[in-house]
């Protein structure tokens, strides 16, 4: 058996094993999704979205308060986290570029991205919930905002750094002040990337439950 034929056989074997592994993973994914749809499709009624939960021990009811509460908390978290993240990323990319403080903040931001959400929830519980002696939706929104900020900040910094410096120089040559260059030139060039970062942060916090158990647990704001 020559070397070329041996490599061809090894490639076929490796491809077959990889295909089997992928098919196995996809099979269980499809099986779980199909099982959930088959057993849960009957419960998808309008009452599920417009009615409040039924009393304990009673049948029926809906999840209106859960949907509304999650939307409100996510909205407040977005109003807090996105401006801070965008402004922080702008500071790192435009005003602190190449400085030690920018490197330090970037490292801390990367660490915050990987911090488990339950740790953030426990932190907000310690600094806000315990001193106030009650849970609140505001505490939950703050916890989600803390999770959003590093994602938006790092994305904004990276996207602004990708805008060529020659574009800024062209705006300077026209007599534009730096803040107008950032708002009218740099932000426009990085808008798509910044929006992507905002959507990624929203996708992350929209499904978080652990921080809310420590902060807004069963509270009506």
Features:
221 residues, single chain, mainly alpha, 9 helices, MetI-like fold
CATH homologous superfamily of the largest domain?
MetI-like
The largest sheet is: none
Mean pLDDT: 88
Q: CATH class of the largest domain, anyone? A: Mainly Alpha
Shape: flat
Tell me the domain tally: 2
What pattern of helices and strands is seen along the backbone? HHHHHHHHH
* CATH architecture tag of the largest domain: Orthogonal Bundle
Strand content: under 5%
> What is the count of β-strands?
0
Query: What is the helical fraction, as a range of percent?
Result: over 70%
Q: What is the name of the CATH topology of the largest domain?
A: MetI-like fold
What can you see in these coordinates?
The chain has 221 residues and is mainly alpha-helical. The protein folds into 2 domains: 42 residues; 152 residues, MetI-like (MetI-like fold, Orthogonal Bundle). Helices cover 80% and strands 0% of the residues. The chain contains 9 helices and no strands.
Secondary structure blueprint with pairings:
Elements: H1 3-40, H2 46-50, H3 64-95, H4 100-114, H5 117-132, H6 137-162, H7 165-173, H8 178-206, H9 210-215
Helix pairs in contact: 3-6, 3-8, 4-6, 5-6, 6-8, 7-8
In short:
By secondary structure, this protein is mainly α. It has 9 helices and no strands. The radius of gyration is 25 Å and the shape is flat.
């Amino acid at each position: 058996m020559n070397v070329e034929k041996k490599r061809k056989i090894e490639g076929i074997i490796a491809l077959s094993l990889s295909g089997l592994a992928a098919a196995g993973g996809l099979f269980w994914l499809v099986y779980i999704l199909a099982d959930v749809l088959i057993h849960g499709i009957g419960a998808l009624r309008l009452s599920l979205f417009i009615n409040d939960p039924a009393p304990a021990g009673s049948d029926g009811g809906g999840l209106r308060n859960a949907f509304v509460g999650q939307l409100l908390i996510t909205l407040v978290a977005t109003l807090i986290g996105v401006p801070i993240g965008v402004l922080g990323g702008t500071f790192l990319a435009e005003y602190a570029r190449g400085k030690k403080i920018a490197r330090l903040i970037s490292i801390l931001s990367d660490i915050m991205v990987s911090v488990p959400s339950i740790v953030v929830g426990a932190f907000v519980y310690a600094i806000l919930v315990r001193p106030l002696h009650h849970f609140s939706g505001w505490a939950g929104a703050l916890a989600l905002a803390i999770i959003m900020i590093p994602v938006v900040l790092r994305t904004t910094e990276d996207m602004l750094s990708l805008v060529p410096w020659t574009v800024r120089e062209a705006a300077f040559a026209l007599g534009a002040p730096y803040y107008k260059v950032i708002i009218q030139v740099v932000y426009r060039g990085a808008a798509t990337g910044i929006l992507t970062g905002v959507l990624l942060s929203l996708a992350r916090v929209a499904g978080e439950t652990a921080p809310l158990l420590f902060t807004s647990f069963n509270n009506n704001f």
